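Please, structure for the following, as tokens.
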Amino acid sequence: DRPRHEQYLTWVGNVASGNWGSSIVTKQPVMTEIWDALKNSLILVIVAFAVTLLVAIPIGIFSAVKQYSVFDNIVTGLAFVFFSFPVFFMGFLLIFFFAVSFKEWGLPSLPPGKMYDLRDGFSIQSLARHLVLPVMTLVLIQAALYIRYLRSSMLEVLSQDYLRTARAKGLSAWTVLRGHAFKNAALPLVTLIMLQLGQLFSGAVVTERIFSWPGMGTLFINAVEQVDYPILMAIL
């Protein structure tokens, strides 16, 4: 019932003080809803991020060192294939094989969704099993991108004169790669990683939806479907 400018200033004041109001649907404080979802998103995204780096860095380096080898050609081909896959397609494909088909074949299967087994309650073992498929979905696509960036950057660095000098001085190949080449080649990769840090807070929206992971992505899509404006405004 106040003029628009007073409404706006009141809203800005509430936002600045962390008062985002309450969810229209659950009646819970918005920040409580977001904090609960953010913790779950961080578990998923940080694990996927760590695994991506553990996979992408050694493969990217080895692919560059063995340029045009059979290994390099296979990695390059798979990287293009995986990076071209839509996230939802990759997620459903993994569910089809590792959750549905494996169960039909009598093999140890993985859970297709949720964060832990609701019947048995929360446990680290249950969380780890439920993490496998969503983490694989993110890793296969993100690692493909990181491998391509690192391979390209490493090839550029490996042709530089200062590396020839380092080799001529008698330094081992491992020392040259680790101490000289990788440090400089990693700069574009670090830039790319920093640009994607926002995903830590926004959540992996599509992946969380496919696997019913109760994170920021799921919270956002649910708020869209339920027209829960306070939640939507806070997340955006």
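The first helix runs from residue 4 to 16. The radius of gyration is 23 Å.
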